[in-house]
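Could someone model NDP with this protein?
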Amino acid sequence: MAVPDLALNSGQTIPQLGFGVFKIDPAETADAVAEALEVGYRHIDTAEMYGNEKEVGEAVRASGLDRGEVFITSKLNNGYHRPDDARRAFDGTLEALGSNYVDLFLIHWPLPTLYGGDFVSTWHTLEEFYRDGRARSIGLSNFQVAHVQRVVDESEVVPAVNQIEVHPYLCNEEVRAANAEYGILTEAWSPLAKGRVLRDQTIGAIASRLSRTTAQVVLRWHVQRGDIIFPKSTTPIRMKENFEIFDFELEAEDIAAISTLDRGEPGRTGPNPDVFARVPR
Ligand code: NDP
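Reply:
Sure, complex below.
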C-alpha cells in the first residue's frame, strides 16, 4: 500500500498523499504530526500562516526519521510579498522548521488587489531560494488561470505545483487544466471540503457498494484524477482511514458520478482568490 511518488518539474518527487496541519493548534501539532508519521505519512503541508512550522519541525526531528525521508511544504504569508520581506520570511520559515532547506515553498495567495498586483516579483524572489537550493521546489497556491499565465510568461522557473481548493463540490477544472498545460501539478486543498462532502448521498452509495468509507472514496477520487492531497485530521483512526486508499480503485463511472457533484463557485469553502486580500496585522 505504498503512497505513489509524483515527479515534479524540478526533478524532485512528492508523495501524492500527505498530512495537512491547517487549524491544528500549535500545542497539539507535534503530537498530531508524530501520529501521522507513525501511520506512515511522509509529507507534511504547513504554512507560516498556520503558526505551527516549529512544531512540525520538532515532530520530524523527534521521529527518528532522516530529514530526507519527510517531504515538507511551507508557504509565504500574505504580509511578506515584497522581495526583502519574502527573504526575511523565508529565513524565518527555515529557522522555525529547524532545517537548512524546505522541500517545497509556495506563495500562499496571489493577492491580485494588493502590492499593485505584482505577485511576479514575489515569484522571482522564490526563484532565488530555488536557485540557492534552500527550496528544493517552489510553487503557487490559490493562483487563478490568469495569475498562472502571468507567472509562466514573465519568469524563468515554471512553478512545480499550484495548490488550490478542489473537492467534489468545487472541481476547479479550469485552473487544473491550466496547471496541466504548463506541467504544474495540482495540489487539492480541503480535499474533503472540510468534511462537507462526507454526508453526500451519491458518494455514500458508492462507498457502501465498495465497503469503504465516504472519506476514502473522496480521497481515492482525487488520487485517480492525479492530484496531490493532504487531508487534515487530529483523530488517529481517521488519519489511518485516510491513509488506506491505495488498495482499491474506483471505476470510471464512479469517478464521473462524483465529478457531476461540482457546484462551481457556490461550492467553495474558502475565499475566492481573485478578491481575497487579508494580510496579517
Ligand atoms: P479537509 O478537507 O482535509 O477536512 C478536514 C476536516 O475533515 C476536519 O474537520 C476533520 O476532522 C475531518 N475529517 C478528516 N478525515 C475524516 C474522516 N476520515 N472522516 C470524517 N471526518 C474527517 O480540510 P482542511 O481545510 O484541513 O484541508 C486540508 C489541508 O489543506 C490543510 O490542513 C492545509 O494543509 C491545506 N489547506 C491549504 C489552503 C491554502 O490556502 N493553500 C487552505 C486550506 C487548507 P478531525 O480533525 O476532527 O478528524
